Amino acid sequence: MISAFIHKFSSPKSFVQITKTLYPLFIFTGLSMLIIGWTWGLLFAPPDAVQGNSYRIIFLHVPAVIFAELIYFFMALCALMHIVWRVRLAAYLIKSAAPIGAMITFIGLFSGSIWGIPTWGTWWQWDARITSTLILFIMYLGILTLHGSFSNLEKSDRLMSILVVIGVVNIPIIKKSVDWWSTLHQPASISVSGGSSIDPSMLYPLIISVIGLGFTLISLGILTSRSYILGREKNKKWVLDHV
Amino acid sequence: MLRLIKIESSKLFYKLKSWLGPMLIMILVLTAFPLSIDISQFDLEKFYFSIIVVSLLMTSFLATEGMFEEDFEDGSLEQEFLIEQDFYKVVLSKIFVYVCFIGVPIALIGAIFSVANGVAIESFVSVFLSLSLSNLLLFNLFAFGNALSINKGAMLGVLTSLPLALPVIILLGTAIRSIQYGNGFLEIISLMIGMGFLISAIMPLIISTALKTHID
Amino acid sequence: MKLISAQNISYKINEKMLFHNLSLEVYSGEGLHIKGGNGSGKSTLLKILLGITSLSKGLIEYKNQDLKISYLGHKNAIKNYLTPAQNLQLLFGNASLSNAFEWLEKLNLFQVQDELTANLSFGQQKKLALIRVLAQSSELIVLDEPFVGLDTAASDLLNSFFVQKLSEGTGLILTSHIQPSVECQVIELDKANA
């Protein structure tokens, strides 16, 4: 029954059709929330008691690292669907999401380095969290390189899915690293349960930036996956009708 | 499975550069490092261990490079598939042989060099055990990377397997620290033994799937 | 006795259909000759029949799960860094090793048995690879272009091997541009695709 449900909603054709209407909505929401969040955070939020104005990079850095991991989780879910239920769309989505994940991880690393200079006096620190994020970036590169290495695309999809599922073990290590090793990084400031140690005047623009970036990245994903799907399925009748 | 171990041992034995090469590289790096620094300036004892760990990582990677490439290229993989119907036993035998013939000797070399550079002789067994177990984990993980990249070269192998290997290195570093400071070793080594069993059992399954995808 | 049957099999790769709704059967003592132009999917069909490659649609049935098949494809599955003698020792257990060395002699490879396989000629390597099939007892023999690189003497040996095996009840499936001397049912892949 699950199999039937999945196959009903996972045809590349229906994905392309549904996203046609979703895309304008997502991009508008995403960009407007980003603009609001960043304007608020960069211009109107008060300076930090300890870090002064240099903390403002968190409005880029924190959303970036959150989505660096979330995109990988999404890819792992798709990979599982591809391996278990042979859903082709899942493989297409992994291939489209990977470059976006790589890009946002790089932005996270880069913005973290910029933040490090005024805060810790160093642009790089070999602590667990930063190193794990670097490993995540390398994993994204590995996934992209792997898929591009084989001419048989179905084989590439399958191998890529295997690699993604194996690599997902790295994500909890990133999460737990702050607890496992004593590091330079501050402990997680936002937690799901209980209060956070960030002042609301900084927290709200941060949350808005996170949501805004999320929608923007989803729109980007929709754009890339639509063109990729059309390319992969180009011999199908529905593509010829669509284009 | 004994048949497979015999075959893999014979193959590895005849390919001198596959097993002798990594050992010589390990010896070379461990010898070259002290020669490249001013020993009077540094306390060699304190960080020689790190050199051993890095050399171990490098030589493990080199030793497993192209592990499945030869069998894939000359059609032996297909033949094995016809006999066994899957690759689990093939992979298990291959990794077992590699660990025995290359992994353990490399760990021994590392342990000997560590004792020669300030580690107490009583810790020799602990060091050897830590290095051997790390090699077991690394060989499994690098075999996975090689199974994915099969004949596409070292770059793909590095990108796919190094992210998986680094946590093993962190684990090894923790084990070595516990040897140096004399506490917590038993816990770490138990963790490594457990992980060793788990990964040795599961990894060949995943590698088998990857290899099947290649010959498909 | 039916050794292997394929029912309505189709195979697609990179969105290109290689063959569609193909059916065939091979019985004991029967030969099947698969013909077709370059790139028509002969080697792929063999691999599908062997279960190495997964088919897109259809069903393949074997006489039983333990059907003993010997196969030689385009790749020789021999180790270039070993000698022919070492290769045979790796391939065969003690029981069939003497038979394998007999074939080594029949194929004029006895003199070069201790030379590195890498130094042998293409034809000699092919002959060595064929011993895997010649010296092994099996119920079904599957060969992909077995005559390529063989001299006349070896080709004749192979043909008489086919005759003998078919009379013993072994099944045979082969692809070849050269007509084998045994009588086989024929499948033409280019025509099957149409």
Structure description:
The complex is a heterotrimer of chains A (about 240), B (about 220) and C (about 190). Chain A is an all-alpha fold. Chain A has helices spanning about 1-10, 10-45, 60-85, 90-120, 130-150, 155-165, 170-180, 200-230, 235-240. Chain A has one domain (about 15-240). Chain A has nine helices and no strands. The radius of gyration of chain A is 20 Å and the shape is globular. Chain B is an all-alpha fold. Chain B has one domain. Chain B has helices at about 1-15, 15-35, 45-65, 70-75, 75-85, 90-115, 125-150, 155-180, 185-215. In chain C, strands 5-6-7-3-8 form a five-stranded parallel beta sheet, with helices on both faces. A three-stranded antiparallel beta sheet of chain C has the order 2-1-4. Chain C is about 35% helix and about 25% strand. In chain C, helix 5 (about 150-165) links the parallel strand 6 and strand 7 (about 170-175). The model of chain C has no long low-confidence stretch (mean pLDDT about 90). In chain C, helix 2 (about 85-90) runs antiparallel to helix 3. Chain C has two domains: about 1-70 and about 140-195, P-loop containing nucleotide triphosphate hydrolases (Rossmann fold), CATH 3.40.50.300; about 80-135, no CATH class. Chain C is an alpha/beta fold and about 190 residues long. Classes of the chains: A mainly alpha (about 240), B mainly alpha (about 220), C alpha/beta (about 190). The interface of B and C includes residues 78, 81 and 216 of B.
